[in-house]
Design goal:
The chain is an alpha/beta fold and 495 residues long. It folds into 2 domains: 4-141 and 346-494, FAD/NAD(P)-binding domain (3-Layer(bba) Sandwich); 150-211 and 237-340, FAD/NAD(P)-binding domain (3-Layer(bba) Sandwich), CATH 3.50.50.60. The chain is built from 15 helices and 20 strands. Strands 1, 2, 3, 4, 5, 6, 17 and 18 form an 8-stranded mixed β-sheet that branches. Strands 7-16-8-9-12 form a 5-stranded parallel β-sheet, covered by helices on one side. A 3-stranded antiparallel β-sheet has the order 13-14-15, with no helix packed on it. β5 (116-121) and β6 form a beta hairpin. The structure holds NADP nicotinamide-adenine-dinucleotide phosphate. NADP nicotinamide-adenine-dinucleotide phosphate is lined by residues 54-56, 139, 145, 147, 177-183, 185, 202-203, 294, 341-344, 459, 461. NADP nicotinamide-adenine-dinucleotide phosphate (NAP) binds at residues 54-56, 139, 145, 147, 177-183, 185, 202-203, 294, 341-344, 459, 461.
Amino acid sequence: MTSEQFDAVIVGAGFGGIGAAIQLKRMGIENFVILDREEDLGGTWHVNHYPGLAVDVPTTTYSYFFEPNPNWSRLFSTGAEIKQYADDVADKYDVRSHMRFNTTVEGARWDEEATAWQVALAGGQTLTTRYLITATGFLSQPHTPDIAGITGFEGKVIHTTAWDDDYDLAGKRIAIIGTGATAVQLIPELARKAADLTVYQRTAIWVVPKLDFRFSEGAKRLFRRVPLAQRAIRAVTDNLYEFFIWVGLHHRGLLGRRLNIGASDIAKLHRFLSIRDPELREKLTPDYDFGCKRPTFSNSYYRIFTKPHVHLQASGIERVEADAIVANDGTRTPIDVLVLATGFDLWEANFPAIEIVGREGRNLGKWWRDTRFQAYQGVSVPYFPNYLSLASPYAFLGLNFFNTMEYQMRHMDRLFAEVKRRGATTFEITEDANTRYLDRMTELIGDSVFTVGNCASSRSYYFNPSGEPTLLRPMSTRSAIKEASDFPLTDYQIA
Ligand code: NAP
């Protein structure tokens, strides 16, 4: 069977893959395909559709820099609107026609002789491509907890990434495991329907108030007619979020530390104003610093625990039975529905999401584990020619995925333009440049909340299994964009 040949293969049709595709088109590369295991585009915004799903970054900021959306209904828009935005952008930039759905990529191997990647698909087909770009996201491999007895539960089990829209929760006795950002959005919705709701919390989360509001029709008209007005609002929300990241994560110096304490004080006050019972407040109080784990926003989360039919169980789960959960304190709670808001497996299943084998047989997942998790500028890895890994260690800028995408698109722009200018066929990051970048990230992270703060009990996915906080790129969006626009081209071997 002859293999189909492409200039580029992108794995993942979420916002990362769509952005990479738009960038390829800008550079005149049209012979590419975007592969996705799902039956539609949008990545996490296609997969997730649980009740209450909304973005937790203001939507004025949660969009591509080059494609503001004047139609957002409110400051923190719903999941359905964001999925619509993904559809609209894919159509406007004509990238949907490049997409192949229900296509699972099993792995990719660099073919030295052909100076090309061989991309293996489930079902046995192989594609050949000059460039390989993986845009598999950070939160794409659902985590199902390994709790004693869970497979023997005879009621309805729903993971938040596979929400059953047809299942009626009204009047049901529901248990939800997890209190991450997803659960914080979902719990108030479940409480509205359930006869009884028990929330199984292992680690409390920092929750701050959500300053949300609807955009009036007049505001939307203004955004449509005067795009600069929306850009101005974006500048405000961008800067607020940069500040928030600086306070919450980078935590630099005495001022950073004081402000970090100030942010946790806001959450404390929010708890105090929402809940009168000091014991309940105490159980919901995190025992690690603000920022160690992604904090979240909600005006209803704390208050919902004051309802008589909503219970917080924080003693841990001993076992699940056919029709109940038994907690470590001996409480047995009969349930009809078990909701798993247990998040994602970031490190084991996602770095990388598929097997990638580069030059001289270097296996990316093995190499990351044998050495350290690393990727130059969050995109390139030595021994992996013509490959960009967009979901890499030290890639994600923090709260807003689109900022990450913006610097990655600019990186592609600078790199591919040089490859074209030289009439070259391959690029590969040098080991020296990669090591210098890793050393710099290690030094910067040394001054972040992850290192100087108290994060020991946070169980945060920002930390890899060796305990190193290698997920976030510890710098401002402005600095990352500047670096993407002027990194030394000699950092790459271009031949
Ligand atoms: P998560 O933050 O990883 O939370 C998973 C929850 O499940 C945690 O509370 C965890 O407890 C609990 N858990 C996992 N295994 C467990 C076990 N065996 N026993 C008991 N509890 C267990 O996942 P998430 O809530 O889905 O959120 C993931 C990320 O998605 C967020 O941080 C955010 O970045 C993103 N998100 C974004 C939005 C948005 O609007 N943009 C909305 C939702 C989610 P431990 O903490 O103790 O491990």
